[in-house]
Amino acid sequence: MRERPTGQPPMHGNRNAALLQTIKSAVISVLCLLLLANIAVHFLVSPSGKSNLNQTAAANGAKSTANESQKSSLTSSQQSKALSKSNCGIDRRWAKNLSLEEFRSTYRLKRPLLLQFERGAADWLVRDSAWSLDRLAGQFGSYDALAGRPVQIVQNGGRGQERVNFGRFLSDIRNASAGEKRYIFSREFFQSTHMDSTLKFPSIMAYNSRDHDLFLFLGGNNSGVSFHRHADAWNAVVGGRKRWFLYPGDRAPPGGVHHAFEPADWLARVRVPMLTNAQQKVAALIDGSAAAVEPLECVQVAGEILYIPEGFYHATINLEPTLAIGIQNVKPLGATETAFYELNAKPPTEADAIASKILKSMPYNTEVLHKQAMSRKRQEKFQEAEKLLERALSLDSSFLVAMLDLAEIKWKYFSKIKEAQALYTKALELNPNLWEVYGKYGEFLAYQTGELETAVEMVEKATQLQSNELVLWQLLRSIHDFAGNETAVSAADVMIDKLSVIDDQLYDF
Ligand SMILES: *[C@@H]1O[C@H](CO)[C@@H](O)[C@H](O)[C@H]1NC(C)=O
Ligand SMILES: *[C@@H]1O[C@H](CO)[C@@H](O)[C@H](O)[C@H]1NC(C)=O
Ligand SMILES: *[C@@H]1O[C@H](CO)[C@@H](O)[C@H](O)[C@H]1NC(C)=O
Ligand SMILES: *[C@@H]1O[C@H](CO)[C@@H](O)[C@H](O)[C@H]1NC(C)=O
Ligand SMILES: *[C@@H]1O[C@H](CO)[C@@H](O)[C@H](O)[C@H]1NC(C)=O
Ligand SMILES: *[C@@H]1O[C@H](CO)[C@@H](O)[C@H](O)[C@H]1NC(C)=O
Question: Where do the record's region annotations for Disordered lie (predicted)?
Answer without folding.
Answer: 55-80
